[in-house]
Amino acid sequence: MEINKKEDKGEDDTTGPEGEMTKEDVSEPVEGDTVLGCHTRLSSHQRPVIHQVASAPMPSDYEFSFFDPSELQCREVLLDPSTTIPELFAVLRQWVPQVQKNIDLIGNEILKRGCGVNDRDGLTDMSLLHYCCKAGAPGIGDADTAASFARQLLSLGADPNLRSRWTNMRALHYAAYFDVPQLIQVVLQASQPGEVDATCSDFDFGTALHIAASNLCTSAVKCLLELGANPSFRNEKGQCPARCGP
To answer: What's one GO-annotated cellular component (predicted)?
Structure first.
């Protein structure tokens, strides 16, 4: 499952007084962002880049349509140094348990190839931390594995406030959307006070609490409230989170 929206917004937003609607700053694409081809290697100390789009590297004569690291053929492809960063991002886009439960294995292979911790997938504009917050989704991924890998990424300098330019979502918003309280906790522990109420323009400038409530993600709602999310914060439509349910 991919969330595909349209607009590129800014990285920062401000939170006003209780119940007051706020809007993010609108910014242009970051100058100097680099698009790397399928066969480019990047050392992790360089500036973040956007990696070119590629297809998942499925083994020849493989009977399944999805990548499964537990299968010998797929494992060989995964560990092959010639398999590129864009190809491995394409694997991460496959919304199946075989991939999502192995976010740490696949993610570490991406890092081993020199991917910067804040680099982005050219198709989704998502970073490894964004993918990690999806990978804990109930019924698809493993929240504990995803949380552990998220801590690793944050220790390497992953930016918890980085937004996908397609959805304008931060890691926190993805964790709320996919109902992963473990990732909400990890991300907020690495964030500044008040970031729990960071807004997202593609959800009517609502907060993570609005997003969780609108999707009936009860575990995420409970976690966000316990961590200080403002239940009176109003989105662009003047709605509090409690009014955002279907």
So the answer is: nucleus
> Which of residues 145, 164, 183 is at a domain's end?
164
**Statement: the pTM of the whole predicted model exceeds 0.90:** no
Q: 10 Å Cβ neighbour count for 142?
A: 20
Closest CA to 115 of 173, 46, 170, 213: 46
Q: Given this model, what pLDDT does residue 74 score?
A: 97
Question: 174 pLDDT exceeds 80?
Answer: yes
Q: How far apart are CA 196 and CA 225, in angstroms?
A: 9
243: domain CATH number is: 1.25.40.20
Q: What is the band of 61 on the pLDDT scale with cuts at 50, 70, 90?
A: confident
Count of structural domains within the chain:
2
